[in-house]
Amino acid sequence: MDLLEFQGKQLFARHGLKVSLGRAVKSVEDAVRAANEIGYPVVVKAQVLIGGRGKAGGVKLAADEAQAREHAGDILGMDIRGHTVRTLWIERASEIEKEYYAAVLLDRSAKRPLVMFSVEGGVEIEQVAEQNPEKLVREHVDPLVGLSRERALQIASRGGADADVVQAVAGALLALYEVWTEEDATLAEINPLIVTAPAPGASDGREVRALDAKVSLDGNALFRHPDNQALADSENEDPIERRAAEQGVQYVKLDGDIGILGNGAGLVMSTLDVVAQAGGSPANFLDAGGGSDAEKIEQAVQLILANSAVKAVLFNIFGGITRCDEVARGLIAAFAAIKPTVPFVVRLDGTNDVVGRELLREAALPNVYPAQTMNEAAEKVVALAAGRGAGAPP
Length: 394
Ligand code: GDP
Ligand code: MN
Known about the structure:
The chain is of the alpha+beta class. The protein contains 13 helices and 18 strands. Strands 7, 8, 9, 10, 11 and 12 form a six-stranded antiparallel beta sheet that branches. It has a six-stranded mixed beta sheet with strand order 13-15-14-16-17-18, sandwiched between helices. α5 (149-158) crosses α6 (166-182). The longest helix has 17 residues, at 166-182. The protein starts with a helix and ends in a 9-residue tail after the last helix.
């Protein structure tokens, strides 16, 4: 689950990372009110789940109320590479002297968290990694030991942080590592991590602060963080995916026109492959899990059909503990309630499959085509989606 910048900053602040004062708003009037309260200059920032907002014109400095109004009006509703701006973050502008980069992420191949730091922040970090790899410090951390202050200090100074802010950068790295572990994040990135200009006349020196935040949380660990569940940005989510998540069903939207429904993630994934091999294009991926009762099947069928792009559905069940005759009964009951208008190819294999197929045949549901093997089912569903009919009945 990806978080918007301001949500990421809320998590940062919870773990002691310095961020600027700001407010999230959804209208021009609220933006102006927030800017007046915060005090000028402010930065008006588009909140969308995509980077490069600055270049796209989604980050603008406002020196006074008139500019705040103008920028808020321009940015709200703007399209940034397919993402419509519905929320703005108004924050007190910072005086930037340096732009650094810091991140903690999961390195799957090393099976460890990876801490990264560079003094070449502000730009695309991939560019730094390619052109000046020596400017990007990469250190794996043993998750059982954690990141020590000594190690964080080494990373900061080896990366070339200015001497007067090495301590502060190390502190930021430690806080970022804490965000990553304690919030069950898969990515916690700050670009830029800025060094501010010292306040005029102030005795305390320069400050290190997160000016941007990119945080992805592990969806499978969200149950451990009730506070973070509320952060799910429903306005950016696919409504059917959200409904599925609420019902505890694995559903992924794809771009094709064949609905795929099965029991077990592995089976559903191989069904996608077989359908693709038969020349079809899956519209979605739905893992109904182990259940076979009518209510669960009805729910799954309704989710599949909620996507109007679906022209035909492949219902693929492998009976292990789940019994195919029960699935068939569930399907018959579900169809009595829903009466789908698109064709369903139903492949039942495994425990009690003969009985299950017999039940389906007896029920003679309109629009249901039983199949025995996965290949046969895939070919049938591809033909049906293309409007060619399912061929000769078995
Ligand atoms: P991104 O383009 O989506 O990565 O958005 P960022 O939040 O990183 O902002 C882009 C750029 O805008 C930053 O690299 C800064 O150069 C600039 N910027 C953002 N906030 C401020 C600010 O408070 N003061 C100044 N002077 N520049 C800012
Ligand atoms: Mn950025």
